[in-house]
Amino acid sequence: MAIVESTLTADVTTFRVEAYEKIDYTLQYVDGVFDPANTQLADVYRPWGRCLMVIDDVVDDLYGERARAYFAAHDIELTVYRLVVDETTKAWTTVEGIIDAFTEFGLVRKEQPLIVGGGLATDVAGFACASFRRATPYVRIPTTLIGLIDASVSIKVGVNHRKYKNRLGAYHASSTVLLDFGFLATLPVDQVRNGMAEIIKITTVGDRHTFDLMDAHGEALLETHFGHVDGEQHAASAELRAAAHEITYRSIQRMLELEVPNLHELDLDRVIAFGHTWSPTLELAPEVPFFHGHAINIDMALSTTLAEQRGHIDATERDRVLSLMSRLGLSLDSPHLTPELLERATAAILQTRDGRLRAAVPAPIGTCVFLDDVSTDELVSALDKHRTLVAELPRGGAGVQAFVDEGLPA
Ligand SMILES: NC(=O)c1ccc[n+]([C@@H]2O[C@H](COP(=O)([O-])OP(=O)(O)OC[C@H]3O[C@@H](n4cnc5c(N)ncnc54)[C@H](O)[C@@H]3O)[C@@H](O)[C@H]2O)c1
C-alpha cells in the first residue's frame, strides 16, 4: 500500500508519502541440511546453478566437506568465503571483507548468498547483505543454539562500533532460514550454555510452561547438547530429545509471537529485551568480552532481584530463576557490575530507548512488566541485595567459562 498526496496552494507545495513494505520469510526445520537426500537448500540455488557460501571458519572446518559434497551432488557450483570473526572483530571492517567477496563473485541482483554459522557470522554477513546494493536477499543456516533460537529468528543484523554493542545495523530478514539442530552435536558446551541464557530470557518473561521444562531438564540438556550427544550423567534419550524439541520450538514460536507485530521495534517496550538493559554496556566492558549469554544473564539475574524487591515476583519464584541460572553455570554477578557501570549503562540505554528505561522484568515467571522509574539509588540497593543472594550460590554467582577467551580451544 502506498499513498502519495500532493498539496499545491498559494503558500504550500508538499508531497506526502506513506508506504509499507512487506516482510516475508520462512523458517524451515531440516534434519540434516547437508544430506544430499534433503533438497531444501539445493532448491534455493538450483535456478542460479551456483552459490556463494559465507561460512564461519570453525564451522567450515567441521562441516565444509559435507557442504561441498552436498552442492556437488546437486550439480551446483559452490564458492566458499571463510569468515574469521569474533566479538572484537564484529565490526564494519569485517563487513567490508564480505562485500569485497560479493563483488569478486559477481553477485547478480536477487542472487542470495548463503550464510552459515552462529550469531556472529549471521549478524555480520547479514549486515553485509543489508548494505550491499542497499538490500541483497540471503539465506541463513544457523549453527549455534543462539543462532537457532534467537539470532536467525530475528530480522536484526549488525556490528559493534568501538565499545558499543550492535551500534550499527539494519532490519533485514533473510528469505529463508534452514533450522538443523543437528549442528548442536559439535557445539562446545560453553556455547550451549550461552544459548540457554537466551531460552531463559524468553521463558522467564514469556512462557512459564517452557521455563518449567528448562527447570526440569536444564542440566541434562546442557550436558547432552540438547539430546544430540551422550553425556556422563545423562544419555541423549528420545525423551530428552523430545523435551529439547518442545523447548526450542516453543521458544522460537513465543519469540515470533512477541516480535512479529513489532519487527522494526517502533514500540520500544519489548518483552524480549529482558536482560538487555544494562548488559550492552557490561558485555564489552572487560578487556576480554563476556560471552553474550553470560552478560545478559547477569542483567536478567539483577532484574529478577529488582522485580522481587518491587513485589512483582515473590522470593520463591526469584530463587527458582536464580537457581536455574546457577545450576547451568551462567554468571549471575561480576566484579565489572559496579554502581558506576550501572549508571553509565542506564544513560546509554535511555538514549537507545527514547528517554525511558523500559527495563523488562518478570512479573511473575512467564509474564513481564516494564520499569521506567528505577533510580540509581534503587539500582544500587538492588545490587547490594543481589550480592547477598548470590553469595549463597555455588561459585558465588560467578559463571563457568564466562569470557570469550576461556571458551576458545587451547
Ligand atoms: N540478531 C539478533 O537478533 C541476535 C540475537 C542474539 C545474539 N546475537 C548476536 O550473536 C552473537 C553471538 O552468537 P553465537 O553465540 O551464536 O556465537 P558465535 O557465532 O561466535 O559462535 C560461537 C562459537 O562457536 C563456533 N561454532 C559455531 N557453530 C558451531 C558448531 N555447530 N559446532 C562447533 N562450533 C561452532 C563458532 O566458530 C564460534 O567460535 C553476538 O554477537 C550477539 O550480539 C544477535
Task: Write a structural description.
Its cofactor is NAD(+). This is 2-epi-5-epi-valiolone synthase. Residues 85-193 form the 3-dehydroquinate synthase N-terminal domain. Strands 3-10-7-6-4-5 form a 6-stranded parallel beta sheet, sandwiched between helices. The protein has a two-stranded antiparallel sheet with strand order 1-2. The protein has a two-stranded antiparallel sheet with strand order 8-9. The protein is built from 13 helices and 12 strands. The chain has helices at residues 40-45, 57-73, 92-105, 119-131, 145-151, 189-206, 208-223, 238-259, 279-283, 292-309, 315-327, 339-352, 376-391, and strands at 2-8, 13-19, 26-29, 50-56, 77-83, 114-117, 139-142, 156-161, 164-171, 176-179, 359-362, 368-371. It folds into 2 domains: 26-186, Rossmann fold; 189-407, Dehydroquinate synthase-like, alpha domain, CATH 1.20.1090. The structure holds nicotinamide-adenine-dinucleotide (NAD).
